[in-house]
From TrEMBL:
<feature type="signal peptide">
    <location>
        <begin position="1"/>
        <end position="22"/>
    </location>
</feature>
<keyword id="KW-0732">Signal</keyword>
<protein>
    <submittedName>
        <fullName>Membrane protein</fullName>
    </submittedName>
</protein>
């Protein structure tokens, strides 16, 4: 996209002056457009959206979400670190608030981009997690720069830029320019993650050394990293990361018959629902995946399990004693089904998993969420819904930013999908995305 230098210069100066202070605005109200509130779930969605208000789940100095808060007696305690994917989802929520007319949200988007620009990185890749110290982001212990979170952030940034591609507002044009520069600066990092011998991406870097596992499954929250790497390096020709890093990832399903009906659900490694659904917040996988029924079957089996156990759907989440576990349903876990490995099990449900199912079955998701609230009204706080409840009604006191972002993001996915597609089309990537997704098929049939 050809940008006008003079307009951008003015916009950049404006952005710098606005961002001289840590917080140029106070976000004490966040709403999205009416079309995204289900008629009978408006209050509940707004409650969870309110997590992203200043003074709730967002740090006043770095202006990014806290990874975790604990809410007791309607008072919160905070964990002073953040997760890159949490920042990604926060940015997309801010864009939707700006579209609804909140001009403060536009200022905050610029502020968050500044936080990201100033954050320490490894070969252009962002660390996970970042400690929040003295109003700055500092790499957490281990200095981990993972493929998964950088892939999620890349698609989030594509959505932010895509939202403003058709705008003549110089501030919005400056946002696009800053995002393009940030994504371009990551190219050395993506190139460093390509394992030519295996033809796959490494999982990331830790303490300056490669993490020795590969991104090798499509039914995993990491799949967007393997999708983005070939796109952002496409212009390098023979040196580009090949599309095979996505195409050669494996996918497995399993066949079940339950109550007279046949199901062929996609298997995630842990049996956790978010591993299958998180990427759909950024990409319309209903349209991209050749046979989406494997996601629909996983959703239906998760919902049946949820209903039978009087709890939300199952995914990685807090525990009811405020720890964290990669919860999953064994019969939907590749590790359990194909390798007989032990997994954390499905004794605890998490509201964000049920919310993610809105992207597959909106009516069923809202009905299930309302049922959860009716069974466990104490799950709702002014900061959002507690992260976990088990079949006995015991609850965590944790609220996790990642899970809140997925909860809210699922309801906004239609708009976010459109913004991502607009950006990818403008950069000449969309046909590559469609081509790679043609490989999203069950490897049992090969």
């Amino acid at each position: 996209m050809n940008l006008k230098i003079k307009s951008l210069a003015g916009a950049t100066l404006m952005a710098v002056s606005v961002l001289a202070n840590a917080s140029a605005v106070t976000l004490d109200k966040l709403e999205v457009r009416d079309q995204f509130y289900p008629a009978d779930f408006r209050e509940e969605l707004q409650t969870n959206l309110n997590f992203f208000l200043d003074g709730k789940g967002v740090d006043a100095d770095t202006l990014v979400p806290y990874d975790t808060i604990w809410v007791k007696d309607n008072k919160a305690e905070y964990a002073y670190y953040t997760n890159t994917t949490e920042i990604a989802l926060y940015l997309n929520i801010l864009v939707e608030a700006e579209k609804a007319g909140n001009q403060k949200a536009l200022t905050r988007i610029q502020e968050v981009l500044t936080t990201l620009e100033e954050a320490p990185k490894f070969k252009g890749l962002f660390y996970w997690p970042y400690d929040i110290k003295g109003g700055e982001l500092k790499p957490g212990k281990g200095e981990i720069a993972p493929a998964v979170d950088n892939g999620n952030l890349a698609f989030s940034l594509a959505a932010v830029a895509g939202a403003y591609l058709n705008s003549t507002d110089p501030v919005k044009q400056s946002i696009i320019s800053r995002i393009d520069q940030m994504l371009k600066a990551q190219i050395p990092g993506w190139l460093s993650l390509y394992d030519k011998d295996r033809g796959l991406l490494w999982g990331g870097w830790q303490n300056g050394e490669l993490i020795e596992y590969h991104v090798d499954r499509k039914a995993n929250e990491s799949r967007l990293a393997a999708l983005w790497a070939p796109l952002i390096t496409k212009h390098l020709g023979a040196e580009a990361i090949p599309a095979s890093v996505f195409n050669d990832m494996e996918t497995y399903t399993v066949s079940y018959r339950l109550d007279g009906k046949n199901y062929t659900p996609i298997l995630t490694w842990d049996g956790a629902y978010f591993q299958a659904l998180l990427p759909a917040i950024w990409l319309n996988e209903k349209e991209l995946v050749p046979d989406y029924s494997m996601f629909e079957d996983t959703t239906q089996l998760q919902r049946i399990y949820s209903k039978r156990n009087n709890m939300p759907m199952v995914s990685s989440s807090a525990t009811v004693n405020d720890e964290y576990r990669p919860f999953g349903i064994p019969h939907l876990s590749e590790a359990w089904v194909r390798y007989d490995d032990k997994i954390a099990g499905g004794s605890t449900g998490t509201p964000h998993a049920t919310a993610l199912s809105y992207m597959v079955d909106p009516e069923g998701a809202v009905k299930s969420l309302k049922s959860i609230k009716a069974l466990y009204p104490a799950i709702e706080t002014s900061y959002g819904w507690y992260d976990a409840v088990d079949s006995k009604g015991r609850m965590s006191t944790k609220i996790l930013s990642l899970d809140q972002g997925m909860f809210v993001g699922a309801f906004l996915a239609e708009s976010i999908n459109a913004d991502v597609e607009r950006y990818l089309r403008a950069r000449g990537y969309w046909d590559d995305v469609k081509s790679m997704y043609l490989s999203f098929k069950d490897d049992r049939a090969k």
